[in-house]
Structure formats: C-alpha cells, structure tokens
Amino acid sequence: MTSDFLASSTAVFLSYRSLGERAIAQVSDEALNRQEDEECNSIATIVKHLHGNMISRWTDFLTSDGEKENRHRDNEFEVEALSRQELMNRWNAGWECLFASMSSLSSADVEREVLIRAEAHSVLEAIQRQIGHTAYHVGQIVMLAKMYRKSDWQSLTVPRGQSEQFNAQMRAKHAKN
C-alpha cells in the first residue's frame, strides 16, 4: 500500500504541475506579473512562493527540517517582475527538486518522521500536506489566469456545459476495459 501511496502522490503532483503549466501558458507575459491589489499575489509571486516552498521542503527531505534556515519566505511575497523564462525556471526547479526527492523514497520511508518548522510529521503526512499546499496555490494560478483570459479561456478540465458528454465518453471508454 505504501508504494501505491507514493506512486499515487507522484501522479497527483504531476497533475497539478500540468494544470498550473496549462494555465500559465494561456496568459500574456504582462499578466504573469499583474497584481490586482496590494493584498493579491500575482501569478509570478505564487510561483516564487511555490518554488521557495518546494526547494525548502524537498531538499534533504528525510534528514533536515523542511523549513531551511536559508529560506526567506517573506521575500517570496515581495513584488518582483519576472520574465516568463525566469518564472518557468523557478517553476521547473521547484518541481524537479520535489520529484527527485519523491523518486528516492521507498515504501519503508513512508512511516519515517520528518520535521517541518520543528514539528514532527510522518513522511505520509508531509506529502499530504504538500499536496494540499500545492493544490491551493495552483488553484489560485488557474483562477487568476481564467480571470485574465475571460471568454478566451480554454478549459483545463471538463468544459462548461459539456459534463454529460464527457461522462458518456468516460463510461464508454471504461466499458471497453
């Protein structure tokens, strides 16, 4: 079961990475750095935060506290105009760190204890925590991208008004298996 958990968690992370990338691809370079107000983060800021979080959490995952001393979380939320290339470099570096660490885990590691801000978590709990955190922020990216694209938005999941058609396709696909 633990190897299934690791494989399933990796698949979930891959799906959130894809969702975020497909949303980011739909917005203009200018929109990546757009901040609606002083309390709202831009897509670039959210990516900076995800990058910082992933690098901190997943570097030396099993052997050091997930909140590294060299991480300056508050700086992740400072406004900084990033080019699409800079943004995607940070995005990719965070994901690469996460997936490298995930791929190194064995079933035996799932019950091990790791620290996040000096608080003990099982590896299973830490992974679930990261999935929740990632989903939260990727959802923000999708919402902002959709807001910026308005009627030009290309659905990332089941398009509005096409649920029945999609469900019928899924039933037909799985009936053949």
Q: How would you describe the overall organization of this protein?
A:
This protein is mainly alpha-helical. The chain is 59% helix and 5% strand. A hairpin with a 2-residue loop joins β1 and β2 (119-122). The chain starts with a helix and ends with a helix. The model has no long low-confidence stretch (mean pLDDT 95).
Q: What's the short version?
A:
The protein is mainly alpha-helical and 177 residues long. It has helices at residues 2-24, 29-32, 43-58, 84-104, 123-149, 163-175; strands spanning 113-116, 119-122.
Features of the shown structure:
177 residues; single chain; two-stranded antiparallel sheet; 6 helices; mainly alpha; 2 strands
Set down the secondary structure blueprint.
Layout: H1 2-24, H2 29-32, H3 43-58, H4 84-104, E1 113-116, E2 119-122, H5 123-149, H6 163-175
Antiparallel strand pairs: 1-2
Helix pairs in contact: 1-5, 3-4, 3-5
Helix percentage range: 55-70%
Shape label: flat
Structural class: mainly alpha
Helix count from the secondary structure assignment = 6
**Range of strand content:** under 5%
Q: Give helix and strand order, one letter per element, not per position.
A: HHHHEEHH
Low-confidence residue ranges: none
Distance between the termini: 24 Å
> Which sequence of strands runs across the widest sheet?
1-2
The whole-angstrom Rg is: 18 Å
Mean pLDDT: 95
Biggest β-sheet strands, sense, barrel: 2 strands, antiparallel
Q: Would you count the extended β strands for me?
A: 2
